[in-house]
Amino acid sequence: MTKQRPNGRADEAADDAQAFRAAVRNVTPLPKAPAIAGLAKPKPRVRVGKAAAAALQDLDEAMPLASGVDAVTGDQGLSFQRAGVRSQVLRRLRRGLYPVDDELDLHGLTQTAARSELAEFIARSRDRGCRCVRIIHGKGYRSGVRGPVLKSAVNLWLRRHLDVLAFVSARTIDGGSGALYVLLRQ
Q1: What is the pLDDT of residues 102-115, one digit of tens each?
Q2: Residues whose CB is less than 8 angstroms from the CB of residue 85 and which lie 6 or more positions away in sequence, other chains included
Q3: How does 4-42 read in b/e, with b if 16+ C-beta sit within 10 Å?
Q4: Closest to 119 in 3D by CA, of 51, 45, 46, 47
Q5: Which residues, 6 or more positions from 118, have their beta carbon under 8 angstroms from its beta carbon?
Q6: Which residues does the chain have with pLDDT short of 70?
Q7: Cβ neighbours of residue 75 closer than 8 Å, sequence gap 6 or more
Q8: What are the CB-based long-range contacts (under 8 Å, 24+) for 84-89?
């Protein structure tokens, strides 16, 4: 039952509603448009925390501890580009044109601790949808004659990590040869 309003507005509203229902009584939905051949719906990306846990279990295999292999110097710049990544992407990364979504500082950590921190950081960053991250490993000036231990290890680990598309040494303002811009798979 409609509430009576001044000037007969309730009657007008009821008449309008009845007229609308009468107008759309015989309306049928349009048939679904056929799917365009060759275009498939993209599969939704699954982001599961279990994948990160599984990655940490296979850490020794995926990211072995570095023992003097491919040693680099403290001032040497690092660069890596996975097959299929355009050189233009690497150039933009080197210039710092990708916004840095997250950062990890590995200063003062042992190789084992740094490896697990790096693996967790990459998994967490990828799950959050980060595209570019900065990893600070230092130049290894306090490592003595051994040279930069973490820098060499991070270089090895990132090259082996499948979620890493490319990395380059950061611009001077962001840490220079003691830090990396890392481009992650989306």
Answers
A1: 999 998 888 889 99
A2: 165, 166, 183
A3: eeeeeeeeeeeeeeeeeeeeeeeeeeeeeeeeeeeeeee
A4: 51
A5: 63, 104, 106, 135, 154, 157
A6: 1-8, 35-75, 142-147
A7: 139, 177
A8: 85/165, 85/166, 85/183, 89/165, 89/166, 89/183
Distance of alpha carbon 101 from alpha carbon 159, whole angstroms: 20
Q: For strand 132-136 and strand 79-81, is the pairing parallel, antiparallel, or unpaired?
A: unpaired
CB 113 within 8 A of CB 65: no
**Separation of CA 128 from chain center:** 6
Q: How far apart are CA 112 and CA 172, in angstroms?
A: 28
Distance between CA 182 and CA 17 in Å, rounded? Answer: 61
According to the CATH classification, is domain 70-184 in 3.30.1370.110? yes
- Assess contact for 77 and 168: CB atoms under 8 A: yes
Q: Which residues contact 105 (CB under 8 A, 6 or more apart)?
A: 136
Taking residue 54's Cβ as centre, other Cβ atoms within 10 Å add up to: 11
